[in-house]
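pinning this so it doesn't scroll away 📌
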Amino acid sequence: MSHSNTIFNQLLQLLPRHEFDKAVSLHKGDKYVKYFSCWQQFITLLYAQIRKKDSLRDISTSLRTQQDKWYHIGLKNICRSTLSDANNKRPYYIFEDLFYNLLIRCKDLTPKHKFRFKNPLYTIDATTVNLCLSLFPWAKYRQTKGALKMHFLYDHAGCMPSFLVITDGRAADIRVAKEQDFSSRLLPDSIISIDRAYIDFKWLSCLNKQGISFVTRLKDNMKPITAGQHRESKNKQVLADQTVLPPSFFQSGGYHNALRLVTYYDKENKKTLQFLTNNFALSATTIAAIYKSRWQIELFFKWIKQNLKIKSFLGTSKNAVMTQIWIAMCYYLLLTYIKYQTRFRYHLIELSRMVRETLLDRVVLIDILSLNSQTVFKLRKADNPQLQFF
């Protein structure tokens, strides 16, 4: 074919290589390295992520069959033991820094969220990844189980993670949010939706002082003091819209301001729900819709677990696991960047399938984006005739 660069090479050109090299220098990732640099490690693990390889031997064998195309991706050599050592010893912070540098590029392209208000909208939540305790003893969760938790600050503008913290499975959600200072990542006038695991009135008071609005569900054991009616709604699903005060034992935690309690009837699930917020400007139906939009992060969790290699790992050390997760999240941002930059009209899963099928083909990336996964497969069959036996 006339095209000289592979799809993989074109993907790598989208990465902020200068920032990556700065992170390698900062964390001394290439100290005493002879040939298999951090960039080579990243290329190899990104290839494994895209092609969904399950073992180091599988990666090595697959890449060796494509050795004539190494020149275009910058790979010089691949050895299973060398890759294993790199995953265990080289600081995963290098790939964490790459994630945030990619995030800066993506934020310039992302569309706005679908609500009418202009405030930034976020969701804070965490998902658990189960691990075998005998293989990952550093990730002890319960007496016979291992797990790690991925804590996300999810940005509804662009449907992508804005901040990520990875902890062991025992870390409480609210403790991580407070210790990692999630609120410092938010601008004043931002709105966040949180579930009941994040109700800590000392932390909510900090959000309120920073001008950040929160929307959450009322806990069953909470009995707020009614201070009056806030606003009448014409929507029949809004059963009540009240101004309330936190009970005295919550006021002792540092929250002394009035709150808003919206009682809403969910027709779809036939449930009565109560939402607690410090936002008195938006309508009651909008408050309910904001909390309902939390479901987007659950869909995001489902997508990354089904389509990224973050449930089975190529190494058992903590550094190897963290390295694989951060590279997986870098790949997610890379797909997001391509989708918004090219205005790709299909779902992200379609884009990932197309990239996987054509990864080492010498075609122009922009050309395949106008197709769908089925037509890409037909195109590859036409350009790659099979051997015939006589």
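📌 and the second one:
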Amino acid sequence: MTRPRGVRLAQLGLLVNAGLALIKLMGGILGNSYALIADAVESMADLFSGMVVWRGVSVASWGENQEYPFGYGKAEALAASFVGLMLVGAALGIAIQAMREILTPHHMPAPFTLAVLVGVVAVKETLFRFVLKGAAELGSTAVAADAWHHRSDAITSVAAFVGISVALVGGPGWESADDVAALVASGIILYNGLKIVRPAIQELMDRSPNSALLTEAEQAARAVPGVRAIEKLRGRKTGPRYYLDLHVQADPGLSLHEAHVLSGMVKSAIRQQLPAVQNVLVHMEPFEP
């Protein structure tokens, strides 16, 4: 149910990015604005990254099997890592070209490019909020990365708007303000790229989930009648789902069957409390004060 929605969000981003990239590229070329061209390049990166996210979310929706007993959820983190690295690469490329443009005399940007940027910012900011909300509801790292990519595009458009405005108001001699804006935009893109890469790599490295989730899982387990103590609670994230394992201490006099039943109750209690938990591995131990 959640996966098809993630795919739809990625598809929406693809369609919007394709249209905006074309509009900004044509506007930048016709309006003599490198900042707008740099913004178009960022949108093209968005377009390609959207395809990566689309594929990552699709693969992550595949079920568990003998070869992949924990499913394909890591495909989302791989897609998010790729998107972040693409942003880093785009930022470096834009920065290098912007510095070249600053040193090269060129024409003043056309006033109509400002109108193009206003429309772009409005569309991108709206898309960012919509996709980020969906990512939070799905618990998807890849969809969240796609959302922040949209926000990155909106910010670079704002930087381009400021640069072009300064160039137009300042008049002859201020043409490079447009290129300085592109340089500033590259720094913003770089920051967002690193912001996306970090949590994705942490997920791939099986970093422990946030402490609030583990605390809530422990409280749910302790509330089960018969549980005397909890220790060694661990977890990892796979796509939007979590896998937990914990050691439960109970009365040493319990039979093997009774211990098995109790472990099932603990598992059910945690999954009922935390729907995002895909599976819980419970290891039963005798309680030793």
